[in-house]
């Protein structure tokens, strides 16, 4: 998914900041440096990065942030607010005709996703706006485009107007629009031709289509995978056509996110939708605030920092780790750990605080909080002796423990087995650490 790398990097920058009790201007500078690198790596336009950094530096280094009780959170808030601002603050909805049918014209390079978006918007109009869309196939240069639109039309039960590939697209649009208006459709969607690169003949044709269709919305379709190129294309189309909205397609792909973060700033054109899949339902309304929070992994990073500050001092963490990896780790420690975890939230969040952990590793760790509660109940039903020396737990003891904890013998057995396994694994980790290897590398 787009933004994954950017999110990881930004979270990394803030995680370090969150570990500090007090935050100095140097700490903030160090985090901001990471933010800057992360944005540049995500292919955000350097002018945008420059302006962005200037604003957040001023705000993040302000007295009210550094002297606050939660400086790390305040810095993140500053970054999140500015990311949101960068992408346009508020969602801008589709334009509408004051009277009669709303006409939307797709423009963009070949392969950017215009035909697909035409279908997606038709579905959106049917479902969300309760409208009756009509599609016009005006891409006569890519023969498959017309068939593609007809296929989508059949799927959706939406009328498609086409005149084949040997007619002038401007005439096709004129005829199509007249037909749609006379037949009472609410939305007219025009799929226009693209080229591999911007060329003047194409622009002239689009300008002529704009003339005859008088669209309420000229929707620039930009492939987010192309990063900065998408921004350059947007600038060019906007210069010639006065684009009114943009849709960033293929955000589900491995895009670095730079286009989403630069396009609004560089063109002033609002991003209205994002494409998140090849299928017709792969369309999302674009909300800058949600996107900023998603990029930052906001919920996660905020609570992580709070937890890191509130719950674990570095000394405690180290002592716990030392015991965890030692030979005489017992069920008492296991229970202590568990209670600590419950206080702090999910296992993932704790694992996430360990340096070197990433999302894939966390997904593998896959911890279920409900299961933790049951495990805790089982251990609490054991005597002190049993916790310290689990080998003494025979069948009748298991029976008593299962009854006491409201679980079953099978669950008690499972826990004992798990405990043995994790003890073994931790012992190995401890040995690896002693020999200087990263014990988390193989998780
Ligand atoms: P056009 O030449 O601009 O009309 O582009 P198309 O609509 O034919 O799309 C080009 C390719 O991109 C097709 O294979 C689409 O399935 C794919 N595509 C379009 N939008 C998205 C999207 O949001 N996500 C993904 N993954 N693929 C998309």
Automatic annotation (TrEMBL):
Q: A Pfam family in this protein? A: SRP_SPB
Domain SRP54-type proteins GTP-binding: from-to ranges: 270-283
Entry's Gene Ontology molecular function annotations: 7S RNA binding; GTP binding; GTPase activity
Question: Is Ribonucleoprotein among the key words of this record?
Answer: yes
Q: Which SUPFAM superfamilies does its entry note? A: P-loop containing nucleoside triphosphate hydrolases, Signal peptide-binding domain
One Gene Ontology term from the biological process aspect of the record: SRP-dependent cotranslational protein targeting to membrane
Superkingdom, natural source: Bacteria
CDD domains the record matches: SRP_G
- Tell me, how does this one assemble? Part of the signal recognition particle protein translocation system, which is composed of SRP and FtsY.
Q: Which family does the record assign?
A: Belongs to the GTP-binding SRP family. SRP54 subfamily.
Domains as described in the record: Composed of three domains: the N-terminal N domain, which is responsible for interactions with the ribosome, the central G domain, which binds GTP, and the C-terminal M domain, which binds the RNA and the signal sequence of the RNC.
The identity of this protein, by name, is Signal recognition particle protein
């Amino acid at each position: 998914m787009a933004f994954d790398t950017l999110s990881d990097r930004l979270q990394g920058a803030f995680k370090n900041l969150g570990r500090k009790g007090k935050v100095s201007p140097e700490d903030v500078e160090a985090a901001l440096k990471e933010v800057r690198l992360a944005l540049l790596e995500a292919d955000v336009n350097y002018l945008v990065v420059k302006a962005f950094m200037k604003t957040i530096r001023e705000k993040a280094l302000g007295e009210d942030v550094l002297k606050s009780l939660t400086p790390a959170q305040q810095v993140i808030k500053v970054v999140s607010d500015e990311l949101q601002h960068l992408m346009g603050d508020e969602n801008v909805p589709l334009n509408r005709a004051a009277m009669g049918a709303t006409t939307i014209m797709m423009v963009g390079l070949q392969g950017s996703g215009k035909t697909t978006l035409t279908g997606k918007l038709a579905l959106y109009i049917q479902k969300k706006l309760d409208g009756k869309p009509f599609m016009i196939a005006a891409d006569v240069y890519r023969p498959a485009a017309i068939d593609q639109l007809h296929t989508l039309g059949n799927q959706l039960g939406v009328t498609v107007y086409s005149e084949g590939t040997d007619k002038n697209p401007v005439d096709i649009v004129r005829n199509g629009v007249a037909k749609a208006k006379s037949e009472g459709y609410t939305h007219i969607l025009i799929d226009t031709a693209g080229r591999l690169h911007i060329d003047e003949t194409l622009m002239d044709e689009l300008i002529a289509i704009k003339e005859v269709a008088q669209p309420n919305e000229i929707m620039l379709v930009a492939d987010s995978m192309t990063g900065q190129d998408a921004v350059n294309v947007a600038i060019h189309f906007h210069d010639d056509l006065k684009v009114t909205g943009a849709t960033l397609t293929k955000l589900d792909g491995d895009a670095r996110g730079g286009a989403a973060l630069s396009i609004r700033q560089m063109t002033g054109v609002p991003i209205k939708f994002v494409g998140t899949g090849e299928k017709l339902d792969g369309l999302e309304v674009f909300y800058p605030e949600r996107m900023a929070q998603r990029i930052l992994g906001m919920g996660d990073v905020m609570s992580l920092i709070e937890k890191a500050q509130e719950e674990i001092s570095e000394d405690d963490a180290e002592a716990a780790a030392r015991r965890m990896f030692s030979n005489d780790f017992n069920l008492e420690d296991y229970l202590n750990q568990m209670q600590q975890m419950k206080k702090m939230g999910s296992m993932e969040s704790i694992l996430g605080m360990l340096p070197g952990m990433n999302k894939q590793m966390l997904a593998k760790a896959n911890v279920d909080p409900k299961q933790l509660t049951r495990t805790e109940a089982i251990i609490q039903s054991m005597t002190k002796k049993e916790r310290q020396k689990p080998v003494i737990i025979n069948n009748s003891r298991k029976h008593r423990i299962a009854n006491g904890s409201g679980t079953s013998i099978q669950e008690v057995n499972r826990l004992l087995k798990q405990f043995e396994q994790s003890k073994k694994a931790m012992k190995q980790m401890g040995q690896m650490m002693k020999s200087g290897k990263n014990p988390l590398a193989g998780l």
